[in-house]
Amino acid sequence: MVGGGAERGVLEPNVRIDPSSISFNMWKVIPVPFYLSVHFFEVLNPKQVLQGAKPVLTQRGPYVYREYRYKTNITFHDNDTVSFLEYRNLFFQPDMSNGTEEDYVVVPNILMMGAAVMMEKLPRILKLILSGALAGMKQEAFMNRTVGEIMWGYEDPLIDTINMLVPGLIPFKGKFGLFMQFNNSNSGLFTVNTGMKNISQVHMVDSWNGLKKVNYWRSSGCNMINGTSGEMWPPFMSPTSLEFYSPDACRSMTLVYEQSGKFKGVPTYRFVAPKTLFANGTDYPPNEGFCPCMQSGIQNVSTCRLNAPMFISHPHFYNADPSLVSSVVGLHPSKDQHALFLDVHPMTGIPMNCSIKLQLNLYIKQVSDIHQTGKIKPVVLPLLWFAESGSIEGSVLNQFYTNLVLLPLVLEYLQYIFLGLSVPLIISAAVLLVMNKGPAAEKSPRPPATQSKPPPSSETTPLLHDADTLSQDDAES
């Protein structure tokens, strides 16, 4: 969407990353209420799964957290860029949740099952030693722990045992929790364009942690850091696609335009995930760099997530290979509930309403010589899915609408009104000028048409003189 001259004149200085711009404080400290909603998949038949049965799951939650985001270490550079660290703080919301953090949930023993798969190709003696150590610690394939423990961490002697047997297999010590690195932490050092010199580059990532590209994946294209940091985009957007780099997914993501709409009176473009986002390399060759791959609809993130056999996907394997859904009991993929979306105001590039949804999955299977894995059939088992959602509301929405939607629109309309008025005025002036010239020309006297003749002289031209006399005599006759 290309704005008119008046709109651009108002919007451009106010969507740059500049302390004097209207959007700067919205960028610095996100003023809208953001929520993280987490749904766990509880395994109802763990003993049967150990004997080779299909896992039966039930969804628990949501467990909802209020999310506060703010930027620190904001440093402007001479090359039209700015660096910052963005922190997230999460606070549990009991009144919005279906349960408490003290709820117990039966899930796979993530550390044990993950380590077992990671050690599958190691010497048999190591696996037997691990199996013996697991038995001594009474470790089993499934565990019954609280939501708080799974989210924020729990002490487990298995961590020290694995680090002793296979140093470096798991790159952490002490507690283990799926969201330990998510709370009271930053998402890395982003350096992005300010748009001061080129508004079409505002918010576009220049580097992340000093890198122009990551090295998690097997192809240059998959390692590219593309788009913005995922909060705002350049203004005057086209209904095509948008890109952002996600440190949580360790990759850049591209969303595609789905439809135009309005959010509380503000025009928006809706962007959604294409079916190719998590497709495997066979179904979508550009994704080959994210492999080794399994079925389409899941992405292997082991290279950036503790080397564990972890996969990300849409919740309930939405848009994934049907075999993933049928490999367990209890999943019901739905676009309305499980598809992610971004509703962005195209003139400013600022999201009005969004819900980013992802699912964490663990690949588990029987591993020879590690007896605790029983006869588990290979399966990508959903652990949990979460949604980060937020929308502009209240006074923030009113300020945004007035300053960045209504005012530029009014100025644009006034520009066309003035243009519309100026055309007939110019025409009227031209007509009056022509009309005034007409009568003035008729009233002014014409100069006499005189022809000067030299006086007749006897000394000169006697023949002409005679001819004049003769002509008068003829006239009298």
Shape: elongated
Q: What is the total tally of β strands?
A: 17
Structural class of the secondary structure composition?
A: alpha+beta
Number of helices: 11
Largest sheet: 13 strands, antiparallel
SS strand fraction: 25-35%
Radius of gyration of CA atoms, rounded to a whole number: 39 Å
Mean pLDDT: 85
Q: Secondary-structure element order, as H and E?
A: HHEHEEEHHEHEHEEEEEEEEHHEEEHH
Helix content: 25-40%
Q: Give start-end ranges of low-pLDDT stretches.
A: 408-416, 448-477
Q: For the terminal residues, how far apart are their CA atoms?
A: 95 Å
What does this structure look like?
By secondary structure, this protein is an alpha+beta fold. Helix content is 28%, strand content 28%. It has helices at 5-15, 24-28, 46-50, 110-118, 124-136, 147-152, 157-165, 322-326, 335-338, 394-443, 462-476; strands spanning 34-43, 57-76, 81-92, 104-108, 142-146, 154-155, 175-176, 185-193, 205-208, 241-246, 251-263, 266-272, 298-300, 310-313, 341-345, 350-364, 379-391. The strands form three sheets. Strands 1, 2, 3, 8, 9, 10, 11, 12, 13, 14, 15, 16 and 17 form a 13-stranded antiparallel sheet that branches. Strand 11 (251-263) and strand 12 (266-272) form a beta hairpin. Helix 1 packs antiparallel against helix 10 (394-443) and helix 5 (124-136) packs antiparallel against helix 7.
